[in-house]
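Structure catalogue
Derive tokens from sequence
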Amino acid sequence: MIKQIKNLHRGFIGGSDFAFPSERIVLLGNKQLSMIVPDNNMVVAPKAIDKHFPYDSTTWFQENAQHHDQHKFVIIFTKNWMYLPVVPVGTSSEYGMLSCQPRIKQTNKIDVTDLEALSHFVVQEYEDFHNGPNGKNTEIRKAVKERFSKHYPPVSEEELKEEMDGWVEAKGKQPLSPAKKQNFNNKKWIFYQELKGNRISHTNFYCLPLSPTSFLEIEFNYRVDRSNKYKKWSKHAEESERRIMESVTLTDIPEEQTPLLN
């Protein structure tokens, strides 16, 4: 009964539950990553979780990395928390979902330990991809240009550009806000955010250098299924994100202990 009253007051059920936290510990080369992350609140297929990630190995990274848009990364683990109405309505009544996914990234384009360079890099990679050959904005511009190529009388280059820019503004990927520095446990992270099509769903990224060519990135993805209900669970999700980030520690492992932990 108490739990039901609490759910009615909050306006949702689900979300991450820090009453039953779980410490996740993995080895990143000669470093130990520790995070307090609640378990999934949804049924997922059991999957073995790797405990060792040689983040500086190019061969290992190329063999294990996956792509999504401009992102190339190796997943450490993923946790998902659904947010649902207190009284379900129909079969598709989910409010949304928060996901947390730490992963490893590599690049030889910059010195990753230079935080200014890293902050510009993550934003520029997004811009270059979505305005490049395989990007969403390029796809939109091509479609508009093809449609207007059949237009009579022909439109001017200026009119065509204005039309393409308008469609990119309405349906494309917008420029990111500048990345900024944030501190957690005496570590300086680079934070940036990507907005989704409905401008409510979004993804927050926190990046921490591991070496001149690699960095840890923690992704928090906010999938909003019902925009009119987002306010009900947004504060809880944001607080969960903050608590997880405040729990993250990355410590060096003494060289003589590393073989014992592998």
